[in-house]
């Protein structure tokens, strides 16, 4: 059974930093890309960052230069370092995992989410 468990969310003032972690189990972690998404209540889920199996990364324009996604295959853990946080970064953040190498595939597995709240 695949499990993705996020941690590290919380409340922080604008300009602050947080580091999210996503621990994966029951999953061939190193084989597939993984990513971070976020969602504000009443809005669509937004892609934040994707980390490929080769550790390549891509980011949403809104977080480029402020967020850094990475993975530690030895620990089966995905990370999201968030710096220079803004109130508009406030959202529930979800970890996602694919089980396909195809570019058109959508994530197969999702974590339960961790709340990030940034106050001005």
Please describe what this structure looks like.
The protein has 120 residues and is an all-beta fold. Helix content is 0%, strand content 49%. It has no helices and eleven strands. The protein has strands spanning 3-7, 10-13, 18-25, 34-39, 46-51, 57-59, 67-72, 77-82, 91-97, 109-110, 114-119. The strands form two sheets. Strands 2, 4, 5, 6, 9, 10 and 11 form a seven-stranded mixed β-sheet that branches. Strands 1-3-8-7 form a four-stranded antiparallel β-sheet, with no helix packed on it. Strand 7 (67-72) and strand 8 form a beta hairpin. The chain is globular, with a radius of gyration of 13 Å. The model has no long low-confidence stretch (mean pLDDT 95).
């Amino acid at each position: 059974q695949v499990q993705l468990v996020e941690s590290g969310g919380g409340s922080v003032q604008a300009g602050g930093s947080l580091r999210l972690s996503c621990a994966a189990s029951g999953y061939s972690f190193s084989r597939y890309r993984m990513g971070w998404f976020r969602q504000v209540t009443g809005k669509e889920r937004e892609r934040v960052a994707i980390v490929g199996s080769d550790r390549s990364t891509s980011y949403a324009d809104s977080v480029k230069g402020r967020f850094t996604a990475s993975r530690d295959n030895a620990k089966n853990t995905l990370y999201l370092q968030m710096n220079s946080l803004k109130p508009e970064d406030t959202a529930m953040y979800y970890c996602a995992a694919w089980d396909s190498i195809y570019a058109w595939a959508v994530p197969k597995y999702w974590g339960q989410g961790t709340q990030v709240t940034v106050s001005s």
